[in-house]
């Protein structure tokens, strides 16, 4: 289970969405509860009068002990998109659980985490030392020029250059010139990286020989293989920049023994009907810091 830490004041709702999405489909039930269809449990407690958790059962003092023996997969009842239910997940505080989607089933729970809890989670993640995400491979140093040239040995550069100058595809306004934005589109579609204007401009100038902000037919025709190789090398360097990875983040595993995490686990148990022991024995909560670019 993971949380994303941007500005916590803004993302309390998102945290709750992510939380419920990851665990909405699991619920632990005892064998006695699963077999019983009556309105009372074996110890005499009444079944709950809401259809959010299925089957319906009120918490009992022995809930964890009985539920831990058997597990059963069920689905929370979203009723309909926009449906609102009030749930008491903490003492003296009620939360509005709003159904936002059915595929996947998502619930919005505003202020699921308080401002203070967000600060504590950020502090805990910093104390645990944020680690680079496993999706990050390198820090932008990329491939060396010599190794890159070896990779190009089998490429038909003349054909690639022709593709770049193929106006009907990338000259969207049909004016016979390729603009910086049209160049970015070319890089995106053909090289699978969408550079910012700041990153694309130095590469674009490799083809803009007269520095007028456009690449016309003559400039395309004058592009040498050496210039085109330089362009490809710049693109390859961009692909090794973490800002252009599918996910660029740092994360930290939070200790289960901290009060804020234990409080969070109790809230999750009430929200989902999961056994506390099942929650405590599941994977650790992770805090993720995503770089905004």
From TrEMBL:
Keywords: Calcium, Iron, Metal-binding, Vitamin C. SUPFAM superfamilies: EF-hand. It comes from the Eukaryota. One of its GO terms (molecular function) is L-ascorbic acid binding. Residues 169-193 form the EF-hand domain. GO terms for cellular component: endoplasmic reticulum. This is EF-hand domain-containing protein. It comes from Pocillopora meandrina.
């Amino acid at each position: 289970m993971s949380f994303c830490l941007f500005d916590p004041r803004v993302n309390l709702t998102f945290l709750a969405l992510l939380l419920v999405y990851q665990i909405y489909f699991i619920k632990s039930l005892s064998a006695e509860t699963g077999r019983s269809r009556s309105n009372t449990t074996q110890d005499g407690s009444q079944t709950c009068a809401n259809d959010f958790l299925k089957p319906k059962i009120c918490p009992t003092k022995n809930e964890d002990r009985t539920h831990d023996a058997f597990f059963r997969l069920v689905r929370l009842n979203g009723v309909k998109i926009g449906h609102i239910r009030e749930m008491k997940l903490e003492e003296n505080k009620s939360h509005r659980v709003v159904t936002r989607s059915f595929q996947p089933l998502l619930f919005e729970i505003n202020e699921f985490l308080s401002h203070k809890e967000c600060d504590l989670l950020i502090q805990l993640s910093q104390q645990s030392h944020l680690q680079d995400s496993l999706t990050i491979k390198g820090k932008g140093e990329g491939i060396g020029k010599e190794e890159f040239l070896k990779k190009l040995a089998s490429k038909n550069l003349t054909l690639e250059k022709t593709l770049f100058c193929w106006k009907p595809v990338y000259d969207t306004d049909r004016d016979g010139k390729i603009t910086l934005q049209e160049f970015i589109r070319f890089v995106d579609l053909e090289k699978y990286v969408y550079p910012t204007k700041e990153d694309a401009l130095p590469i674009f100038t490799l083809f803009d020989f007269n520095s007028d902000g456009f690449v016309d037919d003559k400039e395309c025709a004058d592009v040498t293989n050496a210039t085109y190789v330089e362009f490809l090398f710049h693109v390859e360097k961009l692909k090794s920049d973490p800002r252009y990875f599918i996910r660029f983040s740092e994360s930290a595993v939070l200790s289960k023994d901290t009060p804020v995490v234990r409080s969070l686990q109790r809230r999750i148990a009430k929200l989902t009907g999961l056994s506390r022991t099942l929650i405590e024995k599941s994977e650790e909560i992770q805090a993720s810091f995503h770089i905004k670019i």
